[in-house]
Backbone:
């Protein structure tokens, strides 16, 4: 009777604490079997095991039959893709063997970098899988798949909370939720995380996703907040320049955006030779000649060095050496 009374008092205190404060680490790790605080059975003195075990682990982004079965189920049931369009090769190319895995040291501690799978298992069964790109300063959420049996768990939100917690715990500065398409119902949950910032497609500035931006996105198909502010366009106004706005985006340069986490042109020039890069040209892999980097060309997105430098800045010097870059849109190879 005393034990029961104490447990009731503790639960009441926990309820009051949870209502008053939100501790992301406490909430995220609470259901994880590895962190779970199991009460002791007063009869035999042993921990009371939960009815089910939730285990979450960061694993290699390799191919397994278990992962592919979950992927095939997700694509067919959730995305309504016909089985004929789902293949092991498509899964491998899309979500396996991404960026090179390694570590990045800063401030006396090391962080993982590269592509990984964060696997969610219940009683040993793989029920969800998050694909993550770990950069030197950010955790980037690439893709998430889950089994329809667990749809009510809202794995989109659950995985995002775990990834945010991981970014903080491991010392990454930023958490990228990936693309946001305003008309896509599956992406609406991303708006529930606040504060959230959206990258301007023209100025590459990060803008707070507030009610003003939401109103603008609801009013038209294309929004560049920097341009609309410059032109004095009201939130609900019809944008007369909407059709031509997307074309202006291709004339912007990534380095001028001062986007946090990207590699600088100076770092590229000092640590990467153009001969280290391979490109796909007319369905053949070719190495670039020994042309030196030219700083002016690296800042020009209309030139080959500008496109290459932008790509290296995004994925990192070490990672790009393992890639073959298909740049058919530059060479005009329509058959690629």
Residues:
């Amino acid at each position: 009777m005393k034990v029961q009374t104490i447990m009731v008092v503790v639960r009441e205190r926990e309820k009051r604490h949870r209502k008053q404060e939100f501790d992301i680490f406490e909430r995220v790790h609470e259901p994880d079997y590895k962190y779970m605080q199991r009460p002791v059975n007063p009869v035999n003195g042993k921990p009371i095991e939960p009815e089910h075990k939730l285990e979450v682990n960061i694993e290699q982004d390799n191919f397994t039959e278990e992962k592919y079965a979950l992927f095939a189920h997700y694509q067919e049931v959730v995305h309504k893709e016909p089985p004929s369009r789902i293949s092991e090769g498509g899964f491998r190319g899309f979500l396996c063997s991404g960026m090179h895995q390694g570590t990045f040291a800063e401030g006396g501690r090391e962080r993982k970098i590269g592509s990984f799978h964060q696997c969610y298992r219940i009683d040993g069964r793989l029920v969800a899988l998050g694909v993550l790109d770990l950069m030197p300063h950010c955790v980037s959420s690439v893709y998430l798949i889950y089994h329809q049996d667990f749809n009510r768990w809202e794995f989109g939100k659950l995985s995002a909370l775990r990834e945010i917690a991981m970014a903080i715990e491991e010392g990454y500065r930023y958490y990228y939720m990936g693309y946001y398409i305003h008309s896509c119902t599956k992406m609406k949950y991303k708006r529930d995380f606040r504060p959230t910032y959206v990258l301007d497609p023209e100025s590459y500035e990060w803008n707070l996703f507030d009610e003003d931006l939401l109103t603008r996105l609801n009013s038209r198909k294309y929004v560049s907040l920097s341009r609309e502010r410059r032109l004095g366009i009201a939130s609900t106004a019809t944008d007369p320049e909407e059709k031509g706005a997307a074309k202006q985006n291709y004339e912007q340069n990534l380095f001028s955006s001062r986007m946090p986490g990207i590699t600088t042109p100076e770092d590229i020039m000092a640590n990467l030779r153009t001969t280290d890069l391979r490109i796909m040209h007319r369905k053949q892999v070719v190495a670039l000649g020994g042309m030196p980097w030219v700083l002016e060309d690296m800042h020009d997105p209309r030139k080959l060095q500008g496109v290459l430098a932008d790509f290296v800045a995004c994925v990192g010097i070490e990672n790009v050496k393992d890639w073959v870059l298909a740049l058919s849109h530059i060479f005009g190879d329509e058959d690629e």
Remarks:
- Residues 2-20 form the longest helix (19 residues).
- Confidence is low (pLDDT under 50) at residues 1-9, 242-250.
- DSSP finds 13 helices and eleven strands in the chain.
- Residues 180 and 223 are 12 Å apart (CA to CA).
